[in-house]
Design a protein that fits this description.
By secondary structure, this protein is of the alpha/beta class. It folds into two domains: about 15-20 and about 30-55 and about 95-205, 3-Layer(aba) Sandwich (Rossmann fold), CATH 3.40.50; about 65-90 and about 215-395, 3-Layer(aba) Sandwich (Rossmann fold), CATH 3.40.50. About 45% of the residues lie in helices and about 20% in strands. It has 16 helices and 14 strands. The protein is globular and about 55 Å long. The model has no long low-confidence stretch (mean pLDDT about 95). Bound molecules: pyridoxal-5'-phosphate. Pyridoxal-5'-phosphate binds near residues 95, 241, 243 and 311.
Length: about 400
């Protein structure tokens, strides 16, 4: 029998075509090999799968529903927009799907501690939640500048029992947090597991995180077909930062005749530093341990990036997204701050659903797609809820009267 796409990609070294791999310091080779072997074994183990299934159902609240956004669709006056409601997942976003599974791997490996970096704090909060559930210690590295900016998430992590460790060198943001977290892991990989927050990083994380997120696409496919007399959607749409919520949704439809759209943040302009549209404007390069498409500055270092959605302002992208784009399986689109804010308010006022600013990028893109394709159905991954964004949004963008 021919192997399915998901079973055959990436190859055993973690390559999606020329992208991916594991470019890590020699001191970490053993630790990543251990994770790789463990994942291979656990992903086939009935006990592991059963445990994960139980957690998803009873703790996370899965399956999350698929909702037909009738009011929004009628407002746009075109195609039909459906939402996969990952905002209703425990902690309010899709991230817990992979964090719970990573923590379960740590538990099986007998590790005592989870280590990670976080930018805006979303990954940190999801991982701190998983650590609390499994009784593991949790060290979250975060740039000093981000700690000051993202106060509520810092407080949440601390309440959940995690230790938030400031990265105080360089620009004191995400890149420095990654450096510090990696250093800590090099020093303590016997006792700890480094838990990456998206389909990025060295092999096996892009594959592993995709597999853990694929529950989103599997559920959504079944739910959509049940609502639509066995029909598939014409389009599946998701925002892309690192690309985990997008790969989660796409996995469910990868072997189907469904158009897959990844939406990158165009921020406030097309110049370097104004956006985080890595696939759209980037070039091939290695950072954070994997080969992909990245935004580089004049020195070839990861460029500064910007988006109103702080969870999607990443200067690279998961290697699988680069590959799927190259082979023509996915379509890469963009959405700027202004359109994302508009969609944020539209979905709130027309449907009573306040989306995360990241997810609002996908909603805005879907609204355009619906307008251009009045006969089509469009399934959007609503990756998270917007409670975390409300104070920032109302301060900067006055509430519109519909
Ligand atoms: C972190 C985050 C994202 C971006 O991460 P991906 O790995 O690109 O999915 C998107 N939406 C929400 C709500 C997030 O918290």
């Amino acid at each position: 029998m021919e192997k399915s796409y998901l079973d055959s990609t990436p190859d055993e070294n973690g390559f999606f075509g020329k992208y991916g791999g594991a470019f890590i310091p020699p001191q970490l080779e053993k630790a990543f090999a251990e994770i790789n072997v463990a994942y291979d074994k656990l992903s086939k183990s009935h006990e592991f799968r059963h445990e994960l299934k139980k957690i998803r159902k009873h703790y996370q609240g899965r399956p999350t529903p698929v909702y037909y956004a009738k009011n929004l669709s009628e407002f746009v006056g075109g195609g039909q927009i459906y939402l996969k409601r990952e905002d209703l997942n425990h902690t309010g976003a899709h991230k817990l799907n992979h964090c719970m599974a990573e923590a379960l791997i740590a538990k099986h490996l007998g590790k005592k501690k989870l280590i990670a970096e976080t930018g805006a704090g979303q990954h940190g909060v999801a991982l701190a939640t998983a650590a609390a559930y499994f009784g593991l210690e949790c060290d979250i590295y975060m740039g000093e500048v981000d700690i000051a900016k993202e106060h509520p998430n810092v407080v949440r992590m601390k309440i959940l029992g995690a230790t938030v460790i400031p990265a105080t060198h360089g620009l004191k943001t995400l890149k420095e947090a990654v450096d510090s977290a990696f250093d800590a892991y090099v020093g303590d990989s016997e006792n700890s597991l480094y838990a990456i927050g998206s389909v990025v990083g060295p092999h096996p994380f892009p594959k592993m995180v995709r597999d853990f997120q694929s529950i989103v696409g599997r559920e959504a496919r079944e739910q959509f077909m049940e609502m639509s007399d066995g029909q598939l959607p014409d389009h599946a749409v998701a925002c892309v930062g690192g690309g985990s919520n997008a790969m989660g949704l796409f996995s469910g439809f990868i072997d189907d005749p469904v158009k897959l759209h990844g939406v990158e943040p165009l921020g406030v302009g097309t110049k370097l530093g104004q956006h985080a549209a890595s696939l759209t404007y980037g070039e091939e390069g290695i950072m954070h341990g994997f080969n992909s498409i990245m935004l580089k500055d004049e020195k070839g270092e990861p460029a500064p990036v910007y988006s109103v959605g702080s969870g999607i302002d990443y200067p690279s992208v998961g290697p699988e997204h680069a590959y799927l784009r190259d082979i023509g399986r996915t379509i890469v689109g963009t959405c700027n701050d202004e359109d994302a804010i508009d969609a944020f308010y539209k979905l709130s006022q027309l449907e009573g659903i306040i989306p995360a600013l990241e997810s609002a990028h996908a909603v805005a893109y879907a609204m355009k797609l619906a307008k251009e394709n009045p006969k089509d159905s469009i399934l959007v991954n609503l990756s998270g809820r917007g409670d975390k964004d409300i104070d920032f949004v109302v301060e900067k963008y006055p509430i519109p009267i519909l």
